[in-house]
Please model this.
Amino acid sequence: MNPDLIILCVALSLFGIELIFLKIKKREISLDQTVLNLGLGMIERLIGILTINFGLYFFTFLIPWRFIDPFGPPWLAFVIAFVAVDLMWYVYHRLSHRVSMIWAAHMIHHQSKEYNFSVNFAISPLGFVARIFVYGTLIFFGITPENIIIANAVNALYQYLLHSELWPEFKGWERIFVTPKFHQLHHSSVNEHLDVNYGGVFTIWDRIFRSYRIDDIPVVYGLTKEIEQQDPFHTQALFFLKLIHNFRKLPFRRALALLFLGPEAQTSEMPRIYKVPIKHNIPRIIFGFLIFIVGYIFLSREEYPDWLSFTIGFFGIFIISGLILKYRHNYKEEV
Model:
């Protein structure tokens, strides 16, 4: 069985278990928000699976250029790799909040107005590509590609588990480790919580670089300005189109500078891509998900052409998102 498909199934199973506990505790979650988060993840996986080989090739390409050869016993080499990967995650994560052209990809993870395991799926394939280059720098310092990949997998699993409000507070743990409460503040759009708590596993990086915060101010999840059109394709593209839109509306030098400045430097005007009312229903979501899985499996098998796999996979996402019939209906009304 394809390892990527196994990871997807485990992630969805953990979310399913969380849903059961949320139901027991009578905690409501939004179907619209959940479908949006999962749809974003499906787009990321369809495109991201093609970048895995690129990552392996890039890491291998850098090996002859390393400054230091691998050193120490295997257990020590892995510990060093794990700490180094977490540091580089902090670097990438902070840049993704302070540089608009990287925020365009990372913003997708912060659009969710809820905080549960489905938020883990709300990511961009471009973020995965960016992290390949960030983690690749560790090759120069004698860290092997194998240790980078394994350390990143453990780091990602730890961060996956952080995204739930069902965990206890783990009071005091945040002195060393990132806790769910610590990360909840990072997802909050309250002014006091902006640009804090970037750490993945260890909080020491936030302490060193002065982004550490713990308080009891109630969190408000989501972006400071809500995205009107709630579908995965619109959400994935919106801020990238905003940056392109700047070159049409502003002087070239200013538009170029805005690529590298923080998102707060952007103008409030957002491009209008389309506006389509969407209403989800469970049978259509299940049907679309099954179609997506077929395309996803086809993409990992050499006997099927990529164009067929992508067509099937994206067709499933369109069904899940509710865009196909709604868009046709909306278009006829406007005409």
Q: What stands out?
A: The two ends are 48 Å apart (CA to CA). The chain has two domains: 3-208, 276-335. Residues 276-335 form one domain.
